[in-house]
Design goal:
By secondary structure, the chain is α+β, with helices and mostly antiparallel strands. It contains three helices and five strands; from the N terminus they run βββββααα. One of its GO terms (molecular function) is 3'-5' DNA helicase activity.
């Protein structure tokens, strides 16, 4: 697996397929990124930040895999925004169906379907779940 220079990737499932939120229609497809040790906890349905076209962009991890499907060098996931699963697989399927039925993009449907992130509420939910 080729990567852009200057970072280390994890050994187990080092490739993340990411659906970008709110991108242009011709870019409405999954993109692959390398998983670094700092983002090793990233899993399906979690929010991440990636560099895309020179900008810090929000995305949702669709899956992790052992090998990329492209020959291009992979850029790293910039950071894991939250360890909470915000888009379960069933919700992703609904977003894809809504986009297809309404002639929209999955990225736009995700942008409208996801509430803004509230770190304090996420922390409280995790604390309550641990009790």
């Amino acid at each position: 697996m080729r990567t852009t220079a200057g970072f280390e990737v994890v050994e187990e499932l080092p490739v993340a397929s990411v659906r970008l939120v709110g991108v242009l229609p011709h870019l409405d497809r999954p993109f692959e990124y390398a998983v670094t040790p700092a983002t090793a906890a990233a899993g399906p349905g979690m929010r991440v930040r990636v560099r895309f076209s020179g900008k810090d962009t929000e995305g949702i991890v669709l899956e992790r895999r052992a090998e990329p499907t492209t020959d291009r060098a992979l850029a790293p996931l910039t950071r894991l925004v939250s360890e909470d699963v915000v888009v379960p697989s069933a919700m992703m399927r609904v977003c894809e169906e809504v986009a297809e039925r309404c002639a929209g993009t999955v990225g736009d449907v995700l942008r409208l379907a996801l509430p803004p992130r509230h770190a304090r509420a996420e922390k409280a939910d995790r604390a309550a779940a641990e009790k």
